[in-house]
Automatic annotation (TrEMBL):
<dbReference type="InterPro" id="IPR050833">
    <property type="entry name" value="Poly_Biosynth_Transport"/>
</dbReference>
<keyword id="KW-1133">Transmembrane helix</keyword>
<feature type="transmembrane region" description="Helical">
    <location>
        <begin position="296"/>
        <end position="317"/>
    </location>
</feature>
<feature type="transmembrane region" description="Helical">
    <location>
        <begin position="47"/>
        <end position="70"/>
    </location>
</feature>
<keyword id="KW-0472">Membrane</keyword>
<keyword id="KW-1003">Cell membrane</keyword>
<feature type="transmembrane region" description="Helical">
    <location>
        <begin position="221"/>
        <end position="242"/>
    </location>
</feature>
<feature type="transmembrane region" description="Helical">
    <location>
        <begin position="19"/>
        <end position="41"/>
    </location>
</feature>
<protein>
    <recommendedName>
        <fullName>Polysaccharide biosynthesis protein</fullName>
    </recommendedName>
</protein>
<feature type="transmembrane region" description="Helical">
    <location>
        <begin position="393"/>
        <end position="412"/>
    </location>
</feature>
<feature type="transmembrane region" description="Helical">
    <location>
        <begin position="96"/>
        <end position="118"/>
    </location>
</feature>
<dbReference type="GO" id="GO:0005886">
    <property type="term" value="C:plasma membrane"/>
</dbReference>
<feature type="transmembrane region" description="Helical">
    <location>
        <begin position="124"/>
        <end position="145"/>
    </location>
</feature>
<keyword id="KW-0812">Transmembrane</keyword>
<feature type="transmembrane region" description="Helical">
    <location>
        <begin position="337"/>
        <end position="359"/>
    </location>
</feature>
<feature type="transmembrane region" description="Helical">
    <location>
        <begin position="254"/>
        <end position="275"/>
    </location>
</feature>
<feature type="transmembrane region" description="Helical">
    <location>
        <begin position="184"/>
        <end position="201"/>
    </location>
</feature>
Length: 417
């Protein structure tokens, strides 16, 4: 069996250069994501965009859960950096990811008759097929990202992100120009799920990372990954899957729902897209700072808060004009509402940060409990007898506070041990 440590550079902590490379890739990916949303909103009226938004959110929910594989593979590989594998069983994360992907795809396909009619009210079976196949590919995509982060292959990490995003926008542009309608944008949503295969073919360094082994048995890896997947799934409900949550609690979304979904997506993207993309950097940073976990949170938390407050001000002052100008007169939202949506994005961003620190400390149960608690709180708040906009703001602001408290308590307790 190949020694994993042979492929793991014994470098120092996460560098500014690595953050810059991933930051550039994140910016390009975010621009591509905005382009897909722009093309869909311009091509589909608000009611049609709400249908696309629900599928976009459903795939985001599923792929967000698969990011638990990214987190676990990053932690496992990073922990072995510069050291030899201990004696005993080993496992290959990419093989596990393939098996998990196939199992997840089958689970979606088999259970689809029970739920797909309520979630996908147009192009139902195309949506189910694309969701199944796209998720299978993304399990490998996420695990490969984790392996690359674990061995400091940040250039390849960024390339994989950009390839994913570029494939999406290319298909969306074709759908817009050729008039494929809703179905074309459904294809665009999952188009990036083959990016991992393209990078494996093109990059020898990526192939080296994909061959790495981790300590422990398959069962050990899956045990840790299961908590990460559960937490990542809960986080995905609040982040990418929020349109699905709105649909579940408000069956008749209509045009107003389309406006709310677009507004929530746009106000959170500037913070959450880069933060989600930099999970590998964050986990690697917190693994390196394992002896002062809470102190290591201070600078990134302050940075997120300051950037977020600037975003709140920008959303309040310029948000309504930007929404109308970019997406058309059918998309109307008050500046105050957009500011509140942005404040909710700040809360979720801080929860994402504390979650990265928690999973880096191998506090898998606390990580999962924090995100699940935040999601349950958000669901309860969305069921309140209030208007759609008020319920949305309340859920986005208050739900994450529950998870942040759980994560900080777990980190503080671990630091005292």
């Amino acid at each position: 069996m190949t020694d994993a440590s042979a492929a793991v550079p014994a470098r120092g902590p996460v560098t500014r250069g690595s953050v810059a490379r991933v930051g550039l890739a994140t910016a390009l990916s975010a621009l591509c994501g905005y382009a897909v949303l722009y093309l869909a909103a311009r091509n589909l009226e608000p009611a049609g965009f709400s249908l696309f938004g629900v599928f976009w959110g459903a795939f985001g929910l599923a792929s967000g859960a698969a990011n638990g594989l990214l987190q676990e593979s990053t932690r496992e590989v990073r922990a072995l950096r510069g050291r030899h594998l201990p004696p005993g069983e080993t496992t290959r994360p990419m093989r596990i990811a393939a098996a998990v992907g196939v199992g997840a795809a089958l689970a979606i396909a088999i259970t689809a008759p029970l739920w797909s009619g309520a979630v996908f009210t147009a192009d139902q079976w195309l949506s189910v097929a694309l969701l199944s196949v796209g998720l299978a590919g993304f399990c490998l995509h996420a695990t490969l990202l984790g392996m690359l982060a674990g061995v400091d292959r940040w250039t390849q990490y960024g390339s994989l992100m950009v390839t994913d995003a570029a494939l999406r926008v290319a298909v969306a542009a074709a759908a817009f120009v050729l008039g494929w309608g809703l179905a074309g944008f459904l294809w665009a949503t999952v188009a990036g799920s083959v990016a991992w295969l393209i990078l494996l073919v093109m990059s020898p360094a990526t192939r080296d990372a994909a061959r790495l082994t981790a300590a422990g048995s398959t069962r050990t890896f899956l045990n840790g990954a299961s908590h990460s997947v559960a937490a990542a799934g809960a986080s995905a409900i609040l982040i990418m899957g929020f349109p699905v949550l709105l649909k579940a609690t408000t069956p008749e979304l209509g045009a107003a729902g389309g406006v709310v979904i677009l507004a929530v997506t746009l106000t959170r993207a500037p913070l959450l897209v880069p933060l989600t993309a930099m999970q590998g950097n964050l986990i690697a940073h917190f693994v390196d700072q394992r002896h002062r976990r809470l102190r290591a949170l201070a600078v990134p938390a302050l940075t997120i808060t300051l950037i977020g407050m600037l975003g709140v001000l920008a959303a309040w002052l310029a948000g309504p004009w930007l929404l109308r100008s970019a997406f058309g007169p059918d998309y109307q939202a008050a500046g105050g509402l957009l500011a509140w949506f942005t404040a909710g994005a700040v809360a979720i961003a801080l929860l994402t940060l504390t979650g990265a620190a928690t999973v880096a400390a191998a506090l898998h149960r606390a990580y999962a409990f924090g995100w699940v608690g935040a999601t349950l709180a958000a669901v309860i708040l969305l069921l309140l007898p209030l208007g759609l906009e008020t319920r949305t703001v309340t859920a986005l602001l208050c739900g994450p506070v529950v998870g942040i408290a759980v994560h900080l308590y777990a980190l503080a307790t671990a630091d005292r041990v």
